Amino acid sequence: MPKLPLIVIVGRPNVGKSTLFNRMVGQRRAIVTDEPGITRDRIYGECEWQGIHAEVVDTGGIIPYEEDLMAQNILKQAQIAIRDAAQILLVVNSRDGLVSLDEELARLLRRTGKPLALVVNKVDSPRQVGEAGEFHRLGIEPVFFVSAEHNLNIAEMLDALFSRAEFKQSRVRGVPVGPSGEDEDQEEDQEGVNEGRLLRRRPGEIRVAIIGRPNVGKSTLLNTLCGKERSIVTPLAGTTRDSVDAVIEREGARFRIIDTAGIRHKGKTKLLAERLSVVLARKHLELADVAVLLIDAVEGVTALDATIAGYAHEAGRSVILAVNKWDLFKKTSDSTLLFEEKVRRRAKYLDYAPILFISALTGQRVTNLLKCVKSMAGERERRIPTAELNRFVNSIDFSRATVPVSSRSKILYATQTSVAPPTFVLFTNRASKFHFSFERFLINRFRERFGFLGTPIRIKQRMKK
Ligand code: GDP
Ligand code: GDP
């Protein structure tokens, strides 16, 4: 998943943030991998304008209404997103006129030093633009007078925003199979362009994200892992100072546990804590090689677990599903089997993720967990030599694939284009896209032959010219 520039929508309640968000994200919401069963929050979305892609976050989705409305509080909760912003949009309501909370937000947002634009919303007719003139007093440039609900001036706003250099670089296309087969190249270029923003991994170090909803045991696991050995705590170059990692050396490897402050973060209300856990999971996934997704054995698999699991899958990271608090679970002989079935059902797309039953509190199987993380980190970096790969492709018994013959294409040649996650390009005789179940079939054969424990496998198709 190439990193896209992030547009952050900020403003007090009821100004129209979520309407604007929906307008910008439109139909393109679930573009990355729209597999069945992935549930979504409405915090993040993807916006595409004239072939340029950006990520949009509605901070109103992070900050629930029951929070008190001090500007500082709004921004504190939105900070996670603001820190990574390529563009902040301060939304105000033209109907209310300028209110002091808008002024306070503007003042605080200016201090972030991020590109800031003012969106005066609910300007439903041109006549109202004149009345909304007082907003220029905020001293923010540019100003866009829009109606999110009636789609007025939104195109002009996007034109202006996306003409900035930082956005122009993120021109990525969807991945339809075309005879030109240039999509992959563009995606790779894209990663190259953004390299400055991607955090380079230190060789020999495995970056680990501990993710999961509130109270599953993330900070307990962190404490158990680090214990007395928590000697080295260093920020990763390129991250902000308040994101502090713990580095531990065990099992003959160096593990960097990403953003210990984020793991320890405790939100004030349940809703806020839950939403922040999603935001943090996304952030941590971005920085990690391997994600440990904790699930509470006692509470079972919840919708929020499934949402976070969906993000883990999309991020292309290796994933371990760790069922925690196993010490509390009333066990019978087939408990693990039954629980495993439940997890698999709720997170079908993560079929490659091993499931471990642990207790972060007692330390049960925590060493196993680390061993597993270590071997998975190796697996996602594996490269299969082209000759071996093609011998394998030729040996596949395609008659076992349950795909209508009419939608089958012949694979002529295969090559691995990248690692982490392992990505293969298969050259075929036809331009028709692989049937979903045929891709499944292929991935299963790849796993049978090469393993790739814990990592997603990406398969791309190109027509041979
Ligand atoms: P948020 O709390 O900032 O996310 O605000 P919402 O997006 O939920 O919008 C608050 C209310 O304003 C809703 O009833 C929307 O239908 C309405 N609204 C949003 N945009 C516009 C607009 O451009 N014009 C008008 N007239 N109403 C709008
Ligand atoms: P976080 O919000 O995900 O960081 O969760 P915490 O680490 O704060 O854990 C929430 C609660 O669950 C705390 O009271 C922990 O002591 C408890 N807890 C965490 N892991 C385990 C475990 O493996 N077994 C038991 N019995 N309790 C646990």
> Unreliable stretches, pLDDT < 50, 5 or more residues?
27-39, 173-199, 229-233
Beta strand %: 15-25%
As an assembly, this protein is single chain
Which bin fits the share of residues in helices? 25-40%
Rg on CA atoms, Å? 24 Å
CATH superfamily of the largest domain: P-loop containing nucleotide triphosphate hydrolases
Q: What's the CATH topology name of the largest domain? A: Rossmann fold
Look at the structure and give the mean pLDDT. 81
Count of individual domains: 3
Give, in spatial order, the strands making up the sheet with the most strands: 8-9-10-7-11-12-13
Tell me the name of the CATH class of the largest domain. Answer: Alpha Beta
Largest sheet: 7 strands, mixed
The helix tally amounts to 16
> What is the CATH-assigned architecture of the largest domain?
3-Layer(aba) Sandwich
**Total beta strands:** 16
Alpha-beta content class = alpha/beta
So what's the overall shape? globular
Unique ligands: guanosine-5'-diphosphate
C-alpha termini separation: 27 Å
Keywords:
single chain, 465 residues, alpha/beta, Rossmann fold, GMP Synthetase, Chain A, domain 3, 3 domains, seven-stranded mixed sheet, 16 helices, 16 strands
